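User: quick one, fold this
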Amino acid sequence: MGGTADADITAHAPAARANRLALLRLALAVLAISFTPILFRLSEVGPGATAFYRTCLALPIVLGWMLVERRRAPGALLAPRDALTLVVGGIVFAINIVNYAWAVHLTAVANASLLSNLSPLFVTLGSFLFLRERVTRGFLLAMLAAIAGVAVLASDRLAIGNDELLGDGVALLSAMSFAAYLIIVGRLRLRVGPGTVMLWTGIFTALVLLAVSLASGEAMVPVSPRGWAVLLALAVFSYAIGQGLLTVALAELGAAFSAVALLCLPVSAALLGWIVLGEALGVTQGIGGAIILASILGARLAGR
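Assistant:
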């Protein structure tokens, strides 16, 4: 009996280490992506153009990543359905970015932040309806508690009224499109390497964002070297590192838990805003952040 128990422990050890490594990747992804709102605010070009450069300037890095990936697995070819799914994933991610940028202009920033962070609900619903994936009752409760934490975090800045309805609807569309992106990439990563996923979705995301930026007449060229440095930092930290680590983690942690864990973003972004921009946090923000972090831990324990 003792020998069997020892063998079970030995067998589970590599899986436990892989799980911890995946959680570390996801935590680093959240930290890197948290710089996005600060760098967007410092950008010298419009929001659509900033989002375009965030993706476009990162593509050479992602291309290098994909080439290394191909050397390790030579001869691996994309199936036609995977190629089409990559295109759809890139377009859906661009829709998410564009809708969030519009939501910030059409409604209160707190509304946009709260509603665009409802993506875990849509990920869970979509996974159940289309992929027949089931989640535990404990996971559902933890997810709802995390979303409630986001509401507490933003509660003192929420605006309710007819003037915000259009922006609120656009923010919800942003959440749904991001949920679709997470589900698409999560399924693709079971068959396709992360570098390949990042490169091809990034190309089509950049093309859509470029078209939107040109159509809206936004300023496309930074006026100083500092402006270019901000865009390069966005590309490296937010997209290449942050989005890249998220793409890797999705295959190991799943779209549902990853979506819940990404609710850390409002917390980490608020902390960075306090440190970098001097935007002080109140007791309410502290309570909301604590609820979110505790709920994510609960979701992980329930998911296991």
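User: anything notable?
Assistant: The first helix runs from residue 2 to 33.
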